[in-house]
Amino acid sequence: MSRPMHFEIQASNPQALMDFYSALFGWSFHKWEGGDYWMIHTGPDDQPGINGGLLPRRGPPAADMAPVNAFVCTIGVGDVDAAVAKATGAGAQVAVPKMAVPGIGWLAYIKDPDGNIVGMMQADPKAA
What we know:
Layout: E1 6-11, H1 14-25, E2 28-31, E3 38-41, E4 51-56, E5 74-76, H2 80-89, E6 93-101, E7 105-111, E8 117-123
Parallel strand pairs: 1-4, 5-8
Antiparallel strand pairs: 2-3, 3-4, 6-7, 7-8
């Protein structure tokens, strides 16, 4: 069975999105020597999760209220309400408000300052 091993974020303003995700999730970025690309380190290598990359967007972001035409990543957070508040305080918009995923946890989607959709999930087997 194949599993995800890398993700990418497209950015109209790469530095602004690096600042946003660093502040929101504590991610670190370093420039890849191969061109306009930054590697994203999301956490310790001995913990579950994957790392990714950030690159300049090659066209306009999706229009507001347009269907998502992307592969959406969902990030595990300790407190979805606090994470959404932190994201919106840094310029994101709520795309889908917090909702229960019964037996799994609490899920919300934001639109980052560049229009990318990001899920945030707080594990809670008692969510209903």
